[in-house]
User: Which sequence fits this backbone?
């Protein structure tokens, strides 16, 4: 998996034009799968694509 396949919450929020807290809430509600690395969350590109198809 390349580094470009993972996005931070900030990157996803900026891409989708929503706030940081909105993306964080999606993660906490298990609507958007993520990987927790230390204290940071990372979203896989395939998971983001699947999330967008459902929306």
Assistant:
């Amino acid at each position: 998996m390349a580094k470009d396949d993972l996005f931070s919450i900030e990157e996803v929020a900026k891409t989708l034009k929503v706030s940081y807290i909105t993306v964080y809430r999606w993660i906490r509600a298990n609507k958007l799968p993520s990987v927790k690395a230390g204290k940071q969350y990372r979203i896989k590109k395939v998971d983001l694509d699947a999330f967008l198809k459902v929306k």
Remarks:
- The chain has a mean pLDDT of 92.
- The chain has one domain: 3-54.
- The beta strands are 6-8, 35-37, 40-44.
- The radius of gyration is 10 Å.
